Each structure stands twice: as structure tokens, then as C-alpha cells.
Amino acid sequence: MLSLPRIAAGLCLAVFMSAACWAQPRVFVVESYHSDYPWDQDYRRAIQERLGKRTQLSYYAMDTKRLPPAQHQARADEALAMAAKIRPDLVIVGDDAALQRVGSKLAQQGVPVIYLGINNNPRNYFPGAAPRVSGVLERPLILRSVFELGKAVKGLRSALVLFDDDLTSRIIRDETFVGRDSMLLANIHVDLALTGSYAEWQRRVQGAAGRYQAIWVGLYFTLRGADGKVVPGDEVLRWTAAHAKLPLFAFWDFAVGKDKAAGGLVLSGYEQGREAAKMAEQVLFQQQPVASLFPVTPSEGRYVFSRSALARDGVELPARLQQRAHWLE
């Protein structure tokens, strides 16, 4: 039979553990997209690994890649209402839509905000100074990828870069192509095509062989079919790989693999989430003001390739790229 002192000690321990749990910082993660999206899955995994045991994590997905634009603000309003209930100690916003519609509002209310996956200049989302915001920038290595991998495609003179017409895609066109639809890159003519129509995407892929020598796929998650519904991204990518009849490369790691793109100089959502979580740790556990943290751009990308897809496309990498490559198979 337990003595009264031992019972009292046990009760004190239980109370202490409960208080310690309650004292954990509350972190609210607002996703621009949805939890099934590979990019979101990767950065959520990184955040969970670094913050899952030290904070109380809550999530909200705005689903802007599948919902029509007219519904995006309503989703943002729901995220703001959820934040008001949670009263987070820090908010992490993933990608431009969440920063524009949610993060900017919370920062103005005095909530520390860490962003990730931002393609635009973050200052564009704030009417004035934003002293409680910092984070991780995403800069797809489009021109460098075309230039470097172009050396693996014999006779490359023209390349097609395909994107959907989502917010991120439009920002990339403005930032990388300076608002234009084509450019000359070291004697390679590069055309950029943005479309929201799956039929138009298919038409461009099927007609590419007579005009280009390679295709790069960017983002393809908001393409809509004849019924007005968003076509699943995996379906788009696998169809593209099967019908391109040209070497197919990518800018993000989730698009590389067997029956997908052959490879590329790619970015990773995991890396973005890891860096954002590191910054959150500095704010929550080292008491560093967000304003003292400079925005970061994590890396210069990784060369990731699929051996079977390279063989399918008849591409042999130069020895220099083979030595630097991360192979999926």
C-alpha cells in the first residue's frame, strides 16, 4: 500500500507534467495548399521532426491549388478565426498565398510570423514595415537548370518550360522571366508557357517535338479538365512523361522519378520546412526577436535523377553531373 508521502509526490509529478505540457509554445502552421500535396508533406515532416516534441502544433490548409480563387479569401478568414482561438505564440505560413492573406494580417496584430516557400518579395505583402516577420525564400533554379542540363541534350537550341497559372507560377514568370514569355539563355531559346487548362497543357506537350529539344515541367497542380475539376498532379505528370517524346526535366524533387521527369537541379520542401523550424526555435527558445533574423535562401539545389527515366529519354549525363547526382534508383 502506498504511503501518503508517495501519493502526494505522485500527484505533484502529475501536476508538474500537465503544467509543463500546457506551457509548451503554441505554433500554428498555415498551408497555402493541402496536406496531400508533396511539397506540403515534405515541409510538414521537417517541422514535425524539429518542433513536434517541444511545441503544440496546429495546422490549417487553405487548399488554394484545388479551390477556385473566389473561395481563397474565405479560407483565409477561417485560418484567421482559428488563430484567434488558438492564440499562437508563433505562426508558420507556407507559400505566398498564406503569407499574403493570413501571415500579413497576424503580423500586424503583433504575432511573430515565420514564412517558407516564398517566391515573391515578402515586402510586397505588407503596406508598411513588418518587424515581426522573417523566413525562408524559395528561388527555383530555372535558368541555371536549363543551362546546366542543356549540356546533356545533344543539339539543344530551344527548350519549353511549362507551368500552370497559379499565383506561384505567375510570380516566377515576373521574377525570373521579367514578365516575358521567352528569353535567350547562352544560345538556348527558352519559351515559358503558363496555362490553367489541361487540354492546353496536353496540346503544348504533344506539339513540342517539332519545335523544341527538351521540356522542363514546373508546377502542374491547378490544371482543370473539361469538367472544370482540377486534374490530379500525378496524372498530369505521368501523362506528360508518356507523351513528351523529348527529354523531360523538372525544378522540384517531387516531379522526378520513374514514369516522371528524368531529373533536374531541384528544390525540396523538406529543406524549406527544416530552415523555417530552425528560425522558429530561435524565436521560441532563444528569445530572439523575429526582426533580428535575416531571411534565408537554404541552398543552391540538388541534382536528382532517375536512371530509368534518363534511359527512357535517351539522355546520358556528363561525368561531372553524374558525380554530383543523387540517384532515386
Structure description:
The protein has 329 residues and is α/β, with parallel strands linked by helices. The chain has two domains: 12-139 and 270-292, Rossmann fold (3-Layer(aba) Sandwich); 142-266 and 302-327, Rossmann fold (3-Layer(aba) Sandwich). It has eleven helices and 13 strands. The protein has helices at 4-22, 38-51, 72-86, 95-108, 142-149, 167-176, 198-206, 233-243, 269-285, 307-313, 319-324; strands spanning 26-31, 56-61, 90-94, 113-118, 133-137, 158-164, 182-185, 188-195, 214-217, 248-250, 263-266, 302-305, 326-327. The strands form three sheets. The chain has a five-stranded parallel beta sheet with strand order 2-1-3-4-5, with helices on both faces. Strands 7-8-6-9-10 form a five-stranded mixed beta sheet. It is globular and about 60 Å long. The protein starts with a helix and ends with a strand.
The number of helical runs is: 11
Outline type:
globular
Secondary-structure element string: HEHEHEHEEHEHEEHEHEEHEHHE
CATH superfamily of the largest domain: Response regulator
- What number of structural domains do the residues give? 2
Order of strands side by side in the largest beta sheet? 2-1-3-4-5
Mean pLDDT across the residues is 91
Please mark out the parts with pLDDT under 50 across 5 or more consecutive residues, or reply none: 1-21
What's the level 1 CATH class of the largest domain? Alpha Beta
**CATH architecture title of the largest domain:** 3-Layer(aba) Sandwich
Main beta-sheet strand count, sense and barrel state: 5 strands, parallel
